[in-house]
Design goal:
Rossmann fold, two-stranded antiparallel sheet, 12 strands, about 25% helix, Rpf2, Ribosome production factor 2 homolog, nucleus, rRNA binding, Brix
Length: about 325
């Protein structure tokens, strides 16, 4: 762990203040680290995944002797030094070829990690199509029931949303939606603890598409998806989930960010706002009816109809 630093000037004090816990967090920084041995597939995957979030990412081009599942002390050091809470570690060995480890940090320690192997890969440079602009937020599509039932798939989904969430926006411009990340899960998990068994043959298909908006003759444009890359086929390997107590603390919402409860106002199942109004008992005895034009006109009309019916009877 890094030792506590006492600020010696105003610049250092500002930097340390930015790293302090906040009610509204800054955009998370991700570091992409190469292990002691890597392959060209792993190097290309690290650079392409880093390009998808260029504005808040650091790509380590040198090799580092780091093994997160065996010893995470050096990983804690790198994350603390670069003020990053997200990391991806690439490695390659005979036992685990073309390996990637996605992970998150909390309170200076590793929160959870998921290890995947790259079965097939197509880089961005291999696909000769236009790329998205820098700093744009992606749309996400998660296909497969496993993202709702399996613990490892739920964690992986949450991790991907954390990696590419970006800055929180209050409003969205349609022209700013430039690319889509589609993640599809196949296979099934039959283990009781929802972890990945050794016989699991399912895969994760990671695809990235650009959004092409063309004229449709209406106000809403016609939307088409064009392959941008990178494209991967992942296979789950090792996992390390966060403890339940630690995960509750990490996902706890501060009281200042919780919406204030309004009395007698709620939301129904559809999402519509529903309110209840209490009205006192009305006293009809004090209701003024003499000088009401509506009632007076009705009485005149009734007199005319009665006169007309009498004349008709006499005739």
């Amino acid at each position: 762990m890094l030792k506590t630093i006492k600020p010696k000037n105003a610049r250092t004090k500002r930097i340390l203040k930015k790293r302090e816990p906040k009610v509204e967090e800054n955009v998370k920084t991700a570091i992409f680290i190469r292990g002691s041995t890597t392959s060209q597939v792993v190097n290309d995957a690290l650079s392409d995944l880093c390009r998808l979030r260029r504005s808040n990412s650091i790509n380590f081009t040198k090799k580092n002797n780091i093994h997160p599942f065996d010893d995470d002390t050096s990983l804690d050091f790198y994350c603390a030094k670069n003020d990053s809470s997200l990391f991806v570690i690439g490695s390659h060995s005979k036992k685990r070829p073309h390996n990637l480890v996605f992970g998150r940090m909390f309170d200076g320690q590793v929160l959870d990690m998921i290890e995947v192997g790259i079965e097939k890969a197509i880089t961005m440079n291999e696909i000769k199509t236009p790329k998205c602009s820098m700093g744009m937020k992606p749309l996400f599509i998660f296909n497969g029931e496993l993202f709702e039932t399996s613990q490892v798939h739920k964690t992986f989904k949450n991790m991907m949303l954390d990696f590419y969430r970006g800055q929180t926006m209050e409003s969205i411009n349609v022209s700013g939606l430039e690319y889509v990340i589609s993640i599809t899960a196949t296979g099934s998990i039959t283990s009781s603890d929802n972890t990945v068994p050794s016989t699991f043959d399912g895969k994760i298909f990671f695809r990235v598409y650009t959004i092409q908006m063309t004229k449709s003759g209406q106000k809403v444009p016609r939307v088409e998806l064009e392959d941008m890359g990178p494209n991967y086929e992942f296979k789950f390997r090792r996992t390390r989930f966060a403890k339940e107590e630690v995960y509750k603390i990490a996902t706890k919402i501060p009281k200042t960010l919780k919406p204030k409860k309004v009395k007698n106002v709620g939301v129904n199942e559809i999402g519509d706002k529903v309110g209840r109004i209490h009205v006192g008992r009305q006293d009809l005895g004090k209701l003024q009816t003499r000088k009401m034009k509506g009632l007076k006109r009705m009485s005149e009309d009734n007199d005319r109809t009665e006169d007309w019916s009498r004349k008709k009877r006499k005739a």
